Amino acid sequence: MENPHAERQNVLLQRIIKNVDKCTENVLELNHCLEEIVRANEQVRIAAELVTKYRKNVQYNLEATRGSQTETEEQE
């Protein structure tokens, strides 16, 4: 006669293994999606850096232009 506790444990272990396999699949899919997001965001990050550098250059040039206009007005 088989042990009913062993049968029950076997059924529970099979359910656990099945659920862990599903979790593993989902984690792998999540990792794949996150990698795609990171790749997509790389272009956004580069664009943001370029805009920031452009804004700093514009600000510098505006300040330099204002400074030269002030000097010109003072000389007149």
TrEMBL record:
Keyword Cell cycle: yes
GO (cellular component) term, any one: mitotic spindle
Protein's organism: Phlebiopsis gigantea (strain 11061_1 CR5-6) (White-rot fungus)
Region forming the signal peptide: none
Location in the cell: Chromosome, Centromere, Kinetochore; Cytoplasm, Cytoskeleton, Spindle; Nucleus
Pfam families referenced in this protein's UniProt entry, alphabetically: DASH_Dad4
Lineage: superkingdom: Eukaryota
Predominant cellular place of this UniProt entry's protein: nucleus
Alphabetical UniProt keywords: Cell cycle, Cell division, Centromere, Chromosome, Cytoplasm, Cytoskeleton, Kinetochore, Microtubule, Mitosis, Nucleus
Protein name from the UniProt record: DASH complex subunit DAD4
Family of the protein in this entry: Belongs to the DASH complex DAD4 family.
GO BP terms: attachment of spindle microtubules to kinetochore; cell division
